[in-house]
Amino acid sequence: MTADSKEVQQTARVADPPRSAGGGIAVPAWLRRAAGVSELWTFVILVALVAFFTVAAPGKFFTTYDLTQIAVNAAIYLVLGVGMTYVIITAGIDLSIGSVLVLAAVAAGKYNISHGGATSGWGTVAVCVVIALAVGTAWGALQGAVVATGKVPPLIVTLGGLGAALGLAELATGGQDPAGAASNHLQNSLGFGKVLGIPWLVVLAAVVTAVFGAVLGGTRFGGHTLAIGSNPTAVRRAGISVGRHLIKVYGLMGLLAGLGAVMWLASYGTTSIAGHSTDNLKVITAVVLGGTSLFGGRGSVLGTVIGVFIPAVLTTGLIVIGVQQYWQDVAVGVVLVAAVYIDQMRRKSRERS
Prior knowledge:
The chain has 15 helices and 2 strands. By secondary structure, the protein is an all-alpha fold. The chain starts with a helix and ends with a helix.
């Protein structure tokens, strides 16, 4: 064998892909790690949806107007999704967020109506914002306290909270959306205003997402949230008060529902008492799609960001191609079931490994 033939064989051996123990082509380690990243799979789904609707409606989808509308429509759900991410990571759930948003909006709106209505000044706007945030935080903390001290499942507590909060809002308004619930100042600034061409609603949602994403990934509070979802017994033995932390987490969810109420009033100028019955479904869908486990202990705000945009793109795309409203709700429900199924498959796979 000549020196040249040896060199050719060595080059061929280097160029050949590595083989697995079964004789097949082994998957590179970096590709296996990438395949295990939930956020990557979710992002691939999002890109596939954008590509599908772009082809299905050429020139009508993925325009600057559509992108702006998708971002604005997703802003409130993104804020709610950040709070829901924390709750679900603790192995909890909050079905009441839509009703809490309505109750906070009604409380703030009633104050605004009695202090000038649509022509009220900035002082009234500031008080309304405080009222909405306080009502949401108090309601969330109350539900957290019942979960933590009463040992009642979060599903039952928040299901009761859903009906109770909506009932209080209907009692306060007679079931009708009050006129003049939002100040013109609030609507013209936060609702319709832009900075560098970006709507303020989107900027606010991005700031909230960045702040609480950093809190979850880089602080002791975020670490305790993840640990409680993984093994609450071990956390208690480590001297951490699980109950007190759960109250804070549910209070955070309520705070962000109150902020969502402010954003809704700014955007639409009304409380929309009957318009938030499916908010919990949409937000839970987004969070689970983003890779947060319904069994707790795992999740990220980044995944929720991607997960929020999937239903938003799906809804906008179905509208563009002319699908009826009823089918949009069906599509969101199907996506939720598929996400939960995939989550269970991932969990079983991790347990086997």
